[in-house]
């Protein structure tokens, strides 16, 4: 097989591995963020009721002060969960696949043409056709 075709195939396979890792990581992050949001909403409903009740009735704070404190706590929780969902780095597999693809692409000659890439395919088709023809 010609070297440029082999390098192009290696680059394509490395890119495929990298993209699968990326899709898996993004899907995992989205699922975790979604679950975190559901729990956040459920907890906030109960915490709002209990905290507001404790601040307004038991601590004898004003309605506005109690509302401001509960809202401030909500903001801190939302920021923390947003930062956790945002922090994600590529896995070792993705980084290695990207490096393999880059090395393979760098090894490709600049004059790689479609005919050079199609030559092995045409050779395989010709040999398959010769095997199918009756003698």
Structural summary, described in words:
With 135 residues, the protein is mainly α. It has helices spanning 3-58, 63-86, 92-107, 114-132. The radius of gyration is 29 Å and the shape is rod-shaped. The model has no long low-confidence stretch (mean pLDDT 83). Keywords: Membrane, Transmembrane, Transmembrane helix. The chain crosses the membrane at residues 30-51, 63-84.
Quote the beta fraction. under 5%
Total of DSSP H or I helical runs spanning 4+ residues? 4
Strands, total number: 0
Shape: rod-shaped
Order of helices and strands: HHHH
Give a quick account of the main beta sheet: strands, pairing sense, barrel closure: none
Rg from Cα: 29 Å
Number of domains: 1
The pLDDT mean sits at: 83
Pick out the low-confidence regions.
none
Helix percent reads: over 70%
**What's the end-to-end separation, in Å?**
28 Å
Structural class: mainly alpha
In short:
With 135 residues, the protein is mainly alpha-helical.
Topology overview:
Layout: H1 3-58, H2 63-86, H3 92-107, H4 114-132
Keywords: Membrane, Transmembrane, Transmembrane helix
Transmembrane segments: 30-51, 63-84
Question: Main attributes?
Answer:
135 residues, mainly alpha, 4 helices, rod-shaped
